[in-house]
Specification:
Elements lengths: L10 H4 L29 H35 L6 H17 L2 H10 L4 H35 L10 H18 L1 H6 E6 L5 E6 L7 H31 L5 H36 L11 H19 L4 H9 L1 H11 L32
Antiparallel strand pairs: 1-2
Helix pairs in contact: 2-3, 2-4, 2-10, 2-11, 3-5, 3-6, 5-6, 5-8, 5-9, 8-9, 9-10, 9-11, 11-12
């Protein structure tokens, strides 16, 4: 008919990728949860909380973490000719923490202004974050295994005469962590989210919902459950072994720092992983049979994920503080390094070799810098 008008619709009008953004970002939770009537929950409350809470704490973590881990690297560099196995793992652990900390400013800016850095930097920053997240946890697991073999079975996993073997092991850990981030390199995109006032967000955008549960399970198992089981197994047998033997007290001193690091790991990451498991159950239709989640509970869960994930990220700046308070030799090395600036040690100024809190009881000829 001559009076008919031709209507042209673009694909952008028919299909908006932001409508399918689900809970795929592990760093931040973007709820897309239907209530009983099938409407979409807004996120204004959680956005306001994020925009205040995250920038402040991430800025604090960045400053404290860079200074603390930087000092750890300086101490290890000065003692580089006498580093043992544990020191080498601590070196790589500090590097992983620093690289993870360097991604925090990007996420802080995102909570205030949205993701303004483009898709390429979204992929790079997101993958870098995940690499160093996994690497930090795996390095703690490697330290635990090394201490377990040394103390329980009197087996030196790595020869102190061949330090490159330890570095090669660390390199394998880094490469494995890189492989785990392949989904991030492929699926991370910068896209507008109409649930967050059309702000551009850096999120994982999978081609179908079937990707969600497997990737979450991968995170739960490799990012927390498996390392936790390894460390619990190792330190259960280590502490059991320390109850016997003529060098019991010396070995207890030697393991104190590492046990403190592991406790810090559990305190930092357990709340987040429990909250994330709850989120996985609620967001997956095959698990959450009722599929009924109110907007109020969705917002509360989003705030809980933000708070607990931030606690986990603060773990990056906790380790150097623990070294300073628990590691006698590290504290002595640090104070010796700061003496030219006027810092002095109050109390006993001389620490004997028996003051080591780390690996002296296992390898007295090659003591740790901590």
């Amino acid at each position: 008919m001559n009076g008919d008008k031709k209507v042209t619709l673009s694909m952008g009008e028919l299909f908006d990728p932001s409508d399918l953004d689900d809970l795929y970002n592990y760093s931040y939770n973007y709820n897309y949860i239907p209530n009983g009537e099938g409407t979409v929950c807004g996120q204004e409350s959680s956005m306001h909380f994020d925009s205040i809470f995250i920038p402040v704490l991430y800025s604090l973590a960045l400053v404290v973490g860079l200074v603390g881990n930087g000092l750890v690297l300086v101490v290890l560099w000065k003692k580089r000719t006498s580093l043992n196995v544990t020191d080498t793992f601590i070196l790589h652990l500090s590097l992983a923490d620093i690289l993870l900390l360097l991604t925090l400013p990007f996420w802080a800016v995102e909570t205030v202004k949205g993701w303004i850095f483009g898709t390429a930097l979204c992929k790079l920053t997101g993958a870098l974050f995940k690499i160093n997240f996994y690497c930090g946890i795996f390095m703690l697991s490697c330290i635990s295994l090394d201490r377990y073999l040394s103390i329980v079975h009197a087996v030196q996993m790595y020869s102190r005469k061949k330090p490159m073997v330890t570095h090669c092991c660390c390199l394998m850990v880094w490469l494995f962590c890189l492989l785990l981030t392949i989904p991030d390199w492929i699926f991370l995109v910068a896209t507008e989210d109409n649930r967050r006032q059309d702000k551009t967000e850096c999120v994982l955008f999978y081609p179908s919902d079937s990707w969600h549960l497997p990737t979450r399970l991968l995170y739960h198992i490799l990012g927390f459950i498996l390392p936790a089981l390894i460390m619990l197994f190792c330190y259960y047998h280590i502490l059991k072994r320390l109850q016997h033997g003529s060098q019991c007290m010396q070995k207890k001193r030697a393991i104190r720092v590492i046990v403190t690091l592991v406790l810090a790991f559990f305190i930092s990451w357990t709340p987040y992983n429990i909250t994330l498991i709850v989120d996985t159950i609620q967001s997956n239709k095959t698990i959450n049979l009722s599929n009924q989640t109110s907007c109020e509970s969705a917002t509360a869960l989003d705030v809980a994920l933000t708070a607990t994930s931030t606690l986990g990220y603060l773990h990056c700046c906790v380790n150097p503080v623990l070294y300073a308070f628990v590691g006698v030799k590290f504290r002595q090395h640090l104070l010796d390094m700061l003496k030219p600036l006027g810092f002095t040690l109050m109390g006993p100024a001389v620490l004997s070799r028996r003051s080591s809190l780390w690996s002296e009881s296992v390898d007295t000829s090659h003591t740790s810098a901590f």
